[in-house]
Amino acid sequence: MTNRLADKVAVITGGGAGIGRAIAKRFADEGAHVAIADIGSTDDVKRDVTVAGRRFFASRCDASRPDQVEAFAEGVLKELGRCDILVNNVGIYPLKPFDDLKFEDWKRIFEINVDSQFLMSKAFVPAMKQRGWGRVISLTSTVFWLKIDAYTHYISTKAANIGFTRALATELGPHGITVNAIAPSLVRTATTEASPLAEMFEALPEMLQSIKRTQVPEDLTGAAVFLASDDSAFVTGQTLAVDGGMVRH
Ligand SMILES: NC(=O)c1ccc[n+]([C@@H]2O[C@H](COP(=O)([O-])OP(=O)(O)OC[C@H]3O[C@@H](n4cnc5c(N)ncnc54)[C@H](O)[C@@H]3O)[C@@H](O)[C@H]2O)c1
Questions:
Q1: Using one digit for the tens of pLDDT, what is the confidence trace for 150-161?
Q2: Phi, psi of 48 (to 5 degrees)
Q3: E-strand spans in the chain?
Q4: Domain presence at residue 205
Q5: Does the active-site annotation cover 154?
Q6: Which candidate, 2, 93, 112, 241, has a CA 20 to 30 Å from the CA of 62?
Q7: Are 117 and 65 in contact (CB under 8 A)?
Q8: Closest residue (by CA) to atom 24 of ligand 1?
Q9: Ligand 1 pocket, 218 CB below 6 A?
Q10: pLDDT, tens only, 112-143
Q11: How many domains does the chain contain in total?
């Protein structure tokens, strides 16, 4: 590791498991202190971060709820002093055909996948502006460019993540803050393993990716470090496909 994030403080939503946990571990290995907002256990990621010798903070926080985000942000400031890097990772992706979608499903997925991006950015960007340095990185998905059944609601949220990224980059560029997104392919996590998506682990790379193996969370961490570091200082408003060569855009 090259200590490219030495002494930075990173906030990662949904970082208790899956892609967010892998990013947290890699950030800690690169020198960052880490705060996690999650509704589930954060024991594993706490171990990863503290074994790397970094400071760790987590509180149970539903990232879609304004009051819980506010309380979490206060905890981050108290325990770690600031947030330099915000990773809007939290997201749900239940398959459901449009005919079966209820308005409640639509609203809840937008709350978790999109409102969280807004609320966390509102909580942490103002202090980044004051310091003249910051990174906002959001997880979108290659499904935005693909034809996939039963995903009207999910793809709509991932489109919103990209739109937010593109637009906010314009306002924050003058303040030394870059805003970018990462688009994975299908990634093997505990959640995808337990979903019908698991049936595509073998076929999808074979059919659609140039790199013919199933993506794992660690495949995303190099791109996340790049976008979080000074190496990407002149990169903003972009969506980087880290997908084994699935889409071209
Ligand atoms: N896994 C994939 O195949 C894949 C592919 C493309 C994009 N993505 C995107 O990557 C991101 C992470 O996906 P993942 O597969 O690692 O997820 P995951 O399901 O493995 O982990 C999500 C984490 O978020 C937490 N969480 C859920 N709801 C929450 C809430 N309301 N507030 C706070 N925490 C909450 C969970 O407890 C869990 O720790 C998502 O935005 C997803 O859309 C995933």
A1: 999 999 999 999
A2: -55, -45
A3: 9-13, 33-38, 56-60, 85-88, 134-139, 177-184, 239-242
A4: no
A5: yes
A6: 241
A7: no
A8: 14
A9: no
A10: 999 999 999 999 999 999 999 999 999 999 99
A11: 1
